[in-house]
Amino acid sequence: MNVSFWDLAYISGFTPWDTKEPPKEIIEYLNKGKIKPCRALDIGCGKGYLVRFLAKNGFDAYGIDISFVAIKIAIRDAMKEKVNAKFFNIDFTDTEKVKKLGKFKLITDIACYHSLRDDKRDFYVKSLDEITEKGSIFMIWAFGRGYWGPQGIDENELENKLSHKFKLIDKRGYNVHGRDSFFFVFEKIN
Hints:
Layout: H1 3-12, H2 24-31, E1 39-43, H3 49-56, E2 60-65, H4 68-81, E3 86-89, H5 95-98, E4 106-110, H6 118-131, E5 137-143, H7 157-162, E6 166-176, E7 179-188
Parallel strand pairs: 1-2, 1-4, 2-3, 4-5
Antiparallel strand pairs: 5-7, 6-7
């Protein structure tokens, strides 16, 4: 998929991935004190719902998306709500641009990585490494492979790709719309 696909999706309003509520796991982690306000980045932020939620809860919240149209909507909505959130039109696999954003203690991804072609996934991992430091938390929600829609991931793919610098601290499996789905939390260890 390319940038024009994502822009067209936001222009047409066909964005079934774009929820208006933060994931229940974020709320759970906040309520239990497992994550605290910090500098946070949402990868593939879409219209910025999660970024605005984090900002309203004391986070220094940033969002990036490959879609220029999505970022325009996110900025507009943050201004309407008077929420201090920052949005950038950046492809997360472009490590040189991503690392200019600096380091983050919390990184979230709701359905971005699982949409990438296999040949782009190592660039994603490189960007993730560049913007995290020891103790950074990476939360990701992804579909499994072998179904309709995005390419998805193999169940152990992220554990294998990240094991050299991150440890897995939470993993949950779900069935979403008839499709295997996963939630992972990793902590950077070096």
